[in-house]
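INFO  loader      accepted 1 record
INFO  loader      residues=223
INFO  predictor   begin
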Amino acid sequence: MEKEFSEDELQELAKQLNCPSGIQGLAVADNMDQSNRSMSLETIRTMEVKDNQWLLELGHGKAGHLVDLLKQAKGLRYWGIEISELMQQEAIKENSILVEEGLANFSLYDGLQLPFTAEMFDAIFTVNTLYFWENPVALLNEMHRVLKEKGRLYITFAHQDFMQELPFVNERFRLYDTTKLQALISQTAFQITNISNKTEQVKSKTGAEVIRNYSIACLEKCL
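INFO  predictor   done
INFO  writer      dumping tokens
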């Protein structure tokens, strides 16, 4: 059943979706882990990772999908990076064994500059973070920098026509369709190699059953 939210509650939900914090952030984190899971798993399948690759995820949340990712190939190394300290700590708890084994690392960043050396990663992926990027071109350029030659970036995002119907979506969100994404990528050195469009029925953050249209865009690093 859909819950009735006041305007203040919707504003707080939008804020928490951007950067979860405090007690409310924990509840939002659990909700996001469930509602984003199918998109994350579909992205992982699309990536077709290979043995011994180094992978980076932007905005990992609780990273409940990490075990599934590491099953895709042998010798994978994973780095997750977040603007939310709460999400970083929750992901470490959720994946404590993988962290102890040195298979997973979780870091914080400022949303603009990635604290990694050039050409470090074989692939980067991010699910449902595009709407909150403070400076999309600058962040894309950073991802281009830390990718190896021919490395790939996967951006998974819900379509504008779906997002704008959700009651908590406000001016904090920068919404995209595939045309707007293509215009954004054209300002960078990335090349779009494929965009896969998906549809699924899910429960929204307010509890309503909705049909979600989303895309997985595959970009390749071009020098």
